[in-house]
Every structure is written in C-alpha cells, then in structure tokens.
Task: inverse folding
C-alpha cells in the first residue's frame, strides 16, 4: 500500500474504508504484543540489575561463596530448571495450536505446560529452606535470596496467568482474541525459561567455576 | 457486519459507546485518556504547590542566620519531601499526564492502547502521593533526602518508619510511570493514523516515545534499590551493610542508574513541548526535523551512561572519572543541536509573541545557563570543590525549572484551550511569565555564588559569620516573587476555566492533529479518524478531507496500523470503563503500605492482586453485535485449522 492509501491530489474527498479489515490479529501486529514485550524488558532489566548487584557485593568477599548455595539444594534446583526447560516443548505446541484455531489441543498442551511449571515451582519451594543461609546471614545470602526470590515471583505470575487462561478455556466462551492471548502467554513462558536458566547458572554454577 | 452495514447514527452512537458512565461510579471507572491525562496534570499541579510551600518555608528559615522558624528535624523532612514531591509526584507525572492526554490525539486515534493501565497508573500515583503526605502529616515524613543515601537511610541511622514510607512511595510512583510508559509506547507503535509514518510523527510524540523507553529501562533500578532498602530495614537483608559484605555504594549506583535518566525523563518531554509550541508562533515547521529526532533519541541512550557523575566524590578509580566526565560532556552535543534548531526556527519564522512563546524563550535562556553549569560540574576537579554545595542546587534548579517547568507552563497555556474550551488571560499570562522569570533568577542565581563561597546543601541554618546572609535574603525574596507568579497563574486558570474567552477547535492556527477536533475533545477523540499526508496535517489538509470510515460504532474500537509506515492492519476492540484498575491499585496498596510494617502483607497483597488482575483480564460478556461478528471459538468439537 502507498503511504497515503486511497488519497491523491485529485481525489476530492478521499476516504479509506477499513470495515473489511479483520477484528483480531497475531504476532507482533497487535498492541498487546508490544505490552508483553515491554513487560519482559522491564522484568529483564530488574533481573539484570539484581545479578549485577550480586557481582558487586562479590567484590567485598575474600572467599566466595562463603557457603555454596547448592550444598543441599543443587539437585532440587537442577531438577526444577530441567522441568522448565522441558516445558518449552508443550508450550510451543500449545501456542501453535492456539494460532491454528485448535482450541481443545491448545487446552491440553496448556495443562501439560502448567503441570510441569507447577512441579518446577514445587522444587523451588523445597529449595529455599535447603539453602545453607538465610537472606539475613550475609550480603551473599541477601543476593542469592534476591535472585531466587525475583525468579520465583515470575514463576508464580506465569503459573497464575496459565491457570486463569485454563479457567477461561474450560468455562468459555472463547473468543478469537483469546487465541492471541494464548500465543502471548506462550511467549511469556519462554521468557520465564530463558531467564531461569542463566539465573540458575549464576547462583549454582558460577561459584563452582569462579570461586575466590 | 460488512461494508453493506447501515450508516451509524454518528456521532450520537459514538458518544454513547465511548462516554464514561454517569455519576461517581463513572468517575471511578473512567478510562478515557483525556480524562486520565487531565487528572494526572491537575494532581501534579497540586503537588507542585505543596512542594512550593515546603520550599518557601525552607527559604524563610534560611533568610536569616541562626533562625528558628523551623528546627533541624522538620527541616530535614521538608527538603526530603520537597525533593521527593517535585521529582516523583510532580515532574514525571505531569509529563506523563500531558503524554497520556495528547499522544492519542496527536497520532489520530480514539484512545490510548491500554486504557485500564492508564487508569491504574493514575490511581497508583495518587496512592503514592497520599502515602508520602500522610506520613509527613503524622510526623513520619522521610528525612534522609530525596535520594536517601545509605547508610543514613538504613536501619542503623534512620530508625522508625520514615524512610520506609519513602521507599514504598517509590514503588507506587514508579509503577505508575511504567504503566503510563507501556501504554504510550504501544499507542505510538500501533495506533497511528494511516499515513503517519514514523518520519511524519510529531516531535512531541517522538519525545514521549523516547521518554517512555527511558522509563522502561530506568525505573526498574529504583524499584529494585528501594525494595532492597525496604528489606534491609524490615527483614534484615545486608545489601547495603558493609559489616556483612554489602556496600553503601551499591545504593548510589542503583539509585543514580535510575536517577540520571530520571532527569532526562523529565526534560525530554519538555523538548517535545517546545517543538510542538514553536510552529504556531513562528508560522513555520520546526527547523531540522531529522536532527531533532536524532538528538532526542541519542539523548535517551547517552543519558544511561552518565550516572557516576553523581558519585565523583566517592573515591572512584581514575578511569571512572575520565569516562563519566567525557560522557557527561558529550550529552551537550545533542542538546545543543536541539537548541540550535529551535533558534533557527525562531530566526526564520514570523514571531507571534504570545505567552507560550515567551515561556519558550525563557526556557532557552535558563536551560542553557543550567547546561553550562552542568558542563562545569562534569569536570571532576571543579565538582570535588562544589559537591554537596548550593552550586549544585543552583545548577539543577536551572536545568529542571528552565528545562522542564518553563516549557511546561508554555504547554499549559498552549493546550489549556484544547482541554477546557477557553483561553487563559493573555495579560495575566504575561505578568505571570515576568514574575516567574525574574523571581526564578533572583532566587537561584545567588545560589551559584553561595555554593562557591562554601554553603553546603541540606543545612537548616548557618552562622552570621559565614557572610552568606545577604545572598540568602536575596534568594528568599526571589522565591517569594516566583511564588506570586505561580499563584497568579493558578488564579488565571481558575478564572479562565469559568470566564475565559471561548476557544474554537484551533485558536492558535496550529499544525497538529489535536487541533482537528473540538475543544475539549469528545470522548471518542475524532468523529472520523484522519489520514495523514505530511508532518503538519492541519496545514496541509485544513478541511480534513482525507478520513477513515468503517470503524464499528457499536463498541469501542480502534484502528491498528503497521509500525513503520502506519498502513491499516486490523481493527481492535479496546477496553471500556472498568473498576478493576482501581481495585488493582488498592491491592497494590494492601501489599506495600502494610508492607512497611510486616512482611506478611506481601503474600496477602499478592492474593488480592491476583484477584484484581483476574477480574481485569476476565472477558466481559460480549454484546450481540460483537458475537455476530466474532463467533466464539468452540472448544469442542475439534475445529480443523
């Protein structure tokens, strides 16, 4: 389409009739897509600053970590991350089904994704008391609880979002725009996985690889 | 419904669909961008006056040596509340308010992209302001400065709940700013009128776009910092406690990583206002559209690389000094380009010396002076001499009042007719401008000298032997003049709101789309959305012949266009009036206000927030026309793709 469709210098009253345009869309075409992207940008910035704070306080320790976070929680944490990474597959299937209009299929895969996410959340719940320190033990403890706490907050938010979507799919009526909502929920779930993996690596693996 | 549908009974049907509900419930559930924007601006001006009263009290205390008008504890609360009010409760929200009001009109759409998010942002902002002032009134006002440095603001040196009130106020105001920013970006990206390619977007819209992105990347830093401070104080974390491996400087880094972009978050929309005002009073488009866009975008980026210049006195490595000095000086380049473009516009134009132009001229003079002292402060050797002195106070008031408040007052005068349908008094406006300009300079110029003569910031008094008395007296006299000028402006607004000369759609004969609708605008923005063929739509198509038809009028609906070229893409339903934004703001309040006293507020508030957000996103029962057009997607049986 030209820059000013339907308008030319010679047209006396140029109008553009948009009544035949669709009433919903997918992917990056919608305002809500950009809302979700911006939300991810905001939360990623917070996580990045939390991680930078972790490394900043590292400079104040002669031996790092004072106690490795993973002494009793490493296996749980690893299982949790693995569950989330695996959930990327049903998440993809869910989003693809939603975009294709196959609601029942999308619902099924949403249940699988959410179940895996809930299991990952359960490991996180068990992980916290198994850390070797509390948030008020030392600055390292504060930083680790801070990182894990923010990530847990995101896990809870994503799970809650999936559960609300699931309730909607079960109760209905499901509108065309909800297919796009499912697609966006899928993006958010990917983001959750994409942030959980490096945070796990920083808390549990970095002290093994770069101890002081 | 297809193109064969009967012509709607516009504009009655449009009005019915877009109007807010009647009565107090209608006020609480309103999501119209113009109403929300106006609320932001009015509330921000209330806080401006409160902050001004605090300033006047401080100036009265400082007018005489060893005065006892207020004691040191109250003085600490005054400068903290003054700074926090001006930065968090006035400057950012007022710019956000102008953005929320004007951007949808300027890009030619019916409402902002996320109407309920805008409403949520307003309620959250209001709650934050009430929290700060409520605390102040019960003698629990924060007193550790508007930037609350640790360890002073930590649990050891600031017992009680004063600093907790400050930290939680931050949460509210930053959530509000983020909400507004997300809505503005989505509106600008996806709802511009057909033909308004990015290269035809108004400069004010560019400025709001840059500002909104800056908010997205800067606000998380202060939210994180204030949350860390809150947890250090409430549950014993050690982020800022050196005894357990934490670091006081971490606070400064996190705060100023937000704090420096913050001042540009305030300044960048003001540059957009200047660019928006100039065409009407120079009768030509602004000179240098492309350099102005590039300048504002590069300012947005460079602003994130300057923050350590607030920390030159903390014992940084030499490389840090050099880098941040260079970066702080570098930002003068795009700012300078903007000033030159505006001067060129004035030089080449036919000037109409109405009040908005006077404020633009005042802005150029005062902001440039502030920018020059900024260059001085960017140099470490000089900064080390005047750090924490009144020289710095003078600098930032020159750049903030010159750079943001002057354009703002010009913008207020310029867009007052659009928002109210009446003109402000030109005569009272000139008097206001004169009093404000003279009063400001008499108040703040002496502070440069006071700083150079050694007067520190944030002292509640000083001895007569310092020799600072005369300049302080002068500054107080100027402050009183400035206050009178602002009060005159307030009186002008109140008077004109009732008795001012009626303004038509376009009293200034301006060029932007916001002047293509009535004053005040109808709840649906435009009767027909425009098609844009130039950067100055009203000057190139004054009869507004080119228009969009076919948007549904039975429900609130907007036209979504492509990001770069604004080609029509699809129609999108948009949220109507809703109570859920207020509910979500109250849930946030339940989380964070009791959260000053007990950590249990967090899980309780989280549940409340979950309920509010579920209500927000749960679909409303669609009406018949809607269901006819978009049949529900049946969950069973399986529909083939």
Result:
């Amino acid at each position: 389409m030209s820059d000013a469709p339907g308008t030319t210098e010679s047209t006396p009253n140029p109008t553009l009739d948009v009544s035949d345009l669709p009433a919903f869309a997918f992917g990056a075409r919608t305002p809500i897509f950009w809302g979700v992207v911006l939300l991810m940008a905001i939360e990623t910035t917070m996580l990045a600053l939390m991680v930078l704070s972790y490394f900043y306080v590292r400079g104040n320790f002669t031996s790092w970590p004072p106690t490795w976070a993973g002494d009793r929680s490493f296996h749980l944490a690893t299982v949790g991350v693995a569950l989330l990474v695996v959930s990327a597959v049903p998440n993809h299937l869910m989003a693809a089904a939603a975009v294709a209009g196959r609601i029942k299929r999308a619902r099924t895969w949403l249940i699988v994704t959410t179940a895996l996410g809930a299991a990952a959340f359960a490991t996180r719940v068990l992980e916290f008391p198994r850390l070797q320190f509390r948030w008020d033990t030392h600055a390292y403890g504060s930083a680790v609880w801070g990182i894990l706490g923010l990530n847990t907050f995101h896990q809870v938010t994503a799970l809650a979002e999936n559960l609300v979507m699931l309730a909607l799919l079960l109760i209905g009526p499901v509108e065309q725009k909800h297919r796009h909502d499912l697609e966006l929920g899928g993006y958010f779930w990917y983001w959750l996985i994409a942030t959980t993996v490096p945070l796990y690596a920083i808390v549990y693996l970095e002290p093994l690889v770069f101890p002081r | 419904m297809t193109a064969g549908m009967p012509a709607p009974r516009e504009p009655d049907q449009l009005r019915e669909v877009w109007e807010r509900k009647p009565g107090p419930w209608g006020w609480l559930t309103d999501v119209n961008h113009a109403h929300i924007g106006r609320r932001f601006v009015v509330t921000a001006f209330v806080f401006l006056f409160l902050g001004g009263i605090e300033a006047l009290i401080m100036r009265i205390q400082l007018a005489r040596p060893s005065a006892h008008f207020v004691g040191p504890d109250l003085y600490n609360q005054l400068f903290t509340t003054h700074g926090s009010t001006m930065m968090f409760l006035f400057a950012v929200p007022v710019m956000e308010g102008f953005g929320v009001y004007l951007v949808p009109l300027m890009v030619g759409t019916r409402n902002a992209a996320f109407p309920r998010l805008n409403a949520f942002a307003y309620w959250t902002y209001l709650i934050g302001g009430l929290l700060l002032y409520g605390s102040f009134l019960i003698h629990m006002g924060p007193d550790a400065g508007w930037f609350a440095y640790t360890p002073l603001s930590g649990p050891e040196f600031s017992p009680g709940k004063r600093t907790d009130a400050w930290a939680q106020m931050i949460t509210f105001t930053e959530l509000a700013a983020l909400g507004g920013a997300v809505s503005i970006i989505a509106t600008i990206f996806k709802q511009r009128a057909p033909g308004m390619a990015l290269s035809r977007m108004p400069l004010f819209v560019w400025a709001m776009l840059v500002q909104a992105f800056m908010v997205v990347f800067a606000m998380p830093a202060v939210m994180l910092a204030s949350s860390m401070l809150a947890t250090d104080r409430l549950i014993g974390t050690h982020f800022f406690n050196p005894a357990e491996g934490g670091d006081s400087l971490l606070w400064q880094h996190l705060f100023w990583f937000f704090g420096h972009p913050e001042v540009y978050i305030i300044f960048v929309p003001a540059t957009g206002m200047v660019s928006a005002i100039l065409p009407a009073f120079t009768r030509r488009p602004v000179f240098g559209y492309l350099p102005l866009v590039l300048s504002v975008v590069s300012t947005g980026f460079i602003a994130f690389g300057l923050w350590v210049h607030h920390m030159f006195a903390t014992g940084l490595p030499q490389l840090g000094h050099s880098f941040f000095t260079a970066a702080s000086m570098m930002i003068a380049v795009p700012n300078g380009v903007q000033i030159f473009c505006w001067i060129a516009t004035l030089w080449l134009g036919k000037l109409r010396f109405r009040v908005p132009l006077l404020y633009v001229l005042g802005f150029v003079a005062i902001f440039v002076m502030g920018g020059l002292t900024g260059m001085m402060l960017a140099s470490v050797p000089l900064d080390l001499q005047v750090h924490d002195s009144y020289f710095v106070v003078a600098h930032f008031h020159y750049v903030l009042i010159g750079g943001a408040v002057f354009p703002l007052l010009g913008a207020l005068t310029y867009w007052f007719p659009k928002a109210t349908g009446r003109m402000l008094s030109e005569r009272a406006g000139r008097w206001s401008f004169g009093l404000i300009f003279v009063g400001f300079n008499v108040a703040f110029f002496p502070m440069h000298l006071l700083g150079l003569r050694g007067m520190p910031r944030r002292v509640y008094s000083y001895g007569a032997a310092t020799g600072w008395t005369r300049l302080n007296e002068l500054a107080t006299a100027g402050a009183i003049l400035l206050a009178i000028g602002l009060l005159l402006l307030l009186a002008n607004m109140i008077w004109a709101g009732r008795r001012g000369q009626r303004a038509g759609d376009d009293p200034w004969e301006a060029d932007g789309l916001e002047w293509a609708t009535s004053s005040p605008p109808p709840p649906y923005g435009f009767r027909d959305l425009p098609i844009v063929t130039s950067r100055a739509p009203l000057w190139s198509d004054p009869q507004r012949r080119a228009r969009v038809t076919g948007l549904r009028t039975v429900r609130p609906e907007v036209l979504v266009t492509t990001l770069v070229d604004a080609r029509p893409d699809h129609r999108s339903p948009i949220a109507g009036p809703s109570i859920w934004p207020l509910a979500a703001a109250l849930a946030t309040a339940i989380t964070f206000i009791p959260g000053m006293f007990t950590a249990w507020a967090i899980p309780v508030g989280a549940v409340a927030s979950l309920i509010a957000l579920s209500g927000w996103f749960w679909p409303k029962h669609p009406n018949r026309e809607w269901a006819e057009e978009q049949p529900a997607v049946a969950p069973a049986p399986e529909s083939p793709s």
Remarks:
- Chain A touches chain B through 75 residues (CB under 8 Å).
